[in-house]
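Training component of the fellowship. As part of building independent skills, the fellow (R.M.) carried out the full modelling exercise for a liganded target. The chosen ligand was NAP. The inputs are recorded below so that the supervisory panel can assess the work.
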Amino acid sequence: MKPAESFSALRVYETDGTARAAVEPVTVEDLSPGEVLVRVEWSSLNYKDALAVTGRGRILRGSPRIPGVDLAGHVVASSDTRFSSGDAVIATGYELGMSHDGGLADYARVPADWVVPLPAGLSLLEAMQLGTAGFTAGLAISRLEQLDLAPGNGPVVVTGASGGVSVVVIDQLAALGYEVVAITSKADQVDALRSLGSAEVLLRADLEMGRKPLEKARFAAAFDSVGGETLAWLTRVMQQRGLIAAYGNASGTDLLTTVFPFILRGVALVGIDSAATAPCRSDCASGSAWPLTSSRVTWRACATRSGWIRWWRPARPWSKADTAAAAWCAWPGAEGRLFRIMRLCHMDPARHAHPAEGPDLRRRSSGPGALGHPAA
Ligand SMILES: NC(=O)c1ccc[n+]([C@@H]2O[C@H](COP(=O)([O-])OP(=O)(O)OC[C@H]3O[C@@H](n4cnc5c(N)ncnc54)[C@H](OP(=O)(O)O)[C@@H]3O)[C@@H](O)[C@H]2O)c1
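Fellow's submitted model of the complex:
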């Protein structure tokens, strides 16, 4: 396989704190260096990408820079012996789409340590339908299962339930047999969250959070995308040896709680950082076991756990953040730019219509557009 001499990339130029994005021709030599040259088939659009493209967050370092914090595609060439031409691979996190050119281009050069083989049971498209959000969800579950979380431990609560990460957490937990309690602010998403596999859906506005250092113990585990007051409440309502995976701060970054949940109930608060998850231990080349929470094993787990969500989600993973990304990318009068960005993400709905097969689709899904995701 040979790379095209010149190909398309979305590049962001930053001058005097102002970002300007343009789709333009580049060559392989223009890309950040890396041992593995990948023909990018798919890249999911993330909140970070929106911040990068619009210059609203200090995401990109270096100018011009190609955004896109994840990608899936085929290896074109590799100077690292772990990968060969034609291999299907995924790359997420690290500095991809930040200080290193990312996935919103036809090709990317990626350091070999950031690359994982596409696991059996997942297509390149499905990998990016899950995307960084799905990978984060899979990682959070693996981290807590490593700490002995099991379906028999008791109910598991998921906050920010309609969000990009949490919907995959719910989908995977349900597939694994957990009793899931979803918390959302959106009354119109209750049915969809039940369809996704939640045993119970609570509206955030109805929650009585209380103020005691320890409230009635309710949950064996929690998956939190919200932070702030909600995370503080979660620490107070965990059962003995309860486990909390904190992966987001949608409502705030402060955490006001006491030590009592930790020393009287043995609660463990585990931070999830998907961006710095190593593919494997440094000795993995010698064939030793993969750690459970390596990115390689996490992707494999995602491939086996993710159920029906793969069948009804649109051709790309829409979430509130994605919608914001699309909106932010669509500067007034610049529909062409949005189109090109979407095309770079390979979001062509005609080419990737929802497959009709999948019995769970009919049984459990409220269909494309559920959970407030606009149809592609
Ligand atoms: N740690 C990591 O490696 C990692 C990776 C990816 C993302 N993240 C972070 O994880 C979080 C979720 O990401 P996402 O992609 O799922 O975002 P998202 O699609 O925007 O979802 C966030 C959800 O949080 C809830 N929410 C929003 N504002 C809130 C508020 N003020 N108070 C309480 N709940 C609120 C909403 O759900 P409901 O309306 O259903 O309550 C919303 O859908 C973000 O903070 C993101 O930066 C972290």
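The panel noted the following from the submitted structure. Residues 57 and 329 are 14 Å apart (CA to CA). The chain is about 30% helix and 20% strand.
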